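User: I've been trying to design a sequence by hand for this structure and keep getting stuck. Would you show me what you'd pick, starting by listing the structure so we're on the same page?

Assistant: Good idea, let's start from the same input. This is the structure you sent:
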């Protein structure tokens, strides 16, 4: 196949993957689930924080494997309700940014690893993440479907962080890192 034909074939294949542009209102009916699911995945701040919640829970271990992600999802739903209602919640964006920094530090530093701290921090930061999701819900989207979508994506991102953390713990337990004694 010539390079020109390959290019034409690739262009045709890519055009078949295109989705309709939804730039006007009235297109989101029934699409709330997809919009909600994509929201946490497409924002780097949300993506990082939600994966780190799972990773942090894995580092704590025990009951935190369940309680920390559940606290996040539950409080996120509450924050989303506040966002949809238009309730005034101050410092949303700075708190979302702080969640990435704080959760990142907790994942790399060996302090603050208790289920109670994990549940409290996850719940606190989830309130702001949820508020952002609720406030940014498309006007045309089904609220329940949108909420189910972003909560499902959040749970999957937590599961990804949990999986990574548990695998990392197993690898380190099998093959401890070399320690240099000078």
């Amino acid at each position: 196949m010539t390079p020109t034909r390959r290019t034409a074939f690739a262009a045709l294949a890519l055009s078949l993957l295109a989705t309709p542009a939804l730039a006007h209102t009235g297109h989101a009916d029934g699409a709330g689930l997809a919009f909600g699911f994509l929201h946490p995945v497409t924002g780097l701040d949300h993506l990082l924080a939600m994966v780190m919640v799972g990773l942090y829970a894995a580092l704590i271990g025990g009951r935190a494997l369940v309680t920390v992600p559940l606290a996040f999802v539950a409080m996120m739903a509450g924050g989303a309700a506040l966002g949809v209602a238009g309730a005034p919640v101050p410092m949303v964006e700075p708190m979302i940014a702080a969640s990435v920094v704080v959760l990142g530090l907790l994942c790399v530093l060996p302090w603050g690893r208790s289920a109670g701290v994990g549940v409290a921090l996850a719940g606190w930061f989830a309130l702001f993440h949820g508020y952002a999701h609720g406030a940014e819900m498309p006007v045309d989207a089904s609220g329940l479907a949108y909420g189910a979508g972003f909560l499902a994506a959040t749970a999957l991102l937590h599961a990804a962080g949990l999986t990574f953390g548990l695998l990392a713990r197993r690898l380190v337990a099998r093959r401890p890192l070399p320690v240099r004694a000078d």
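That's my pick for every position. To get oriented when you compare it with your attempt: Residues 30-172 form one domain. Residues 11 and 17 are 10 Å apart (CA to CA).
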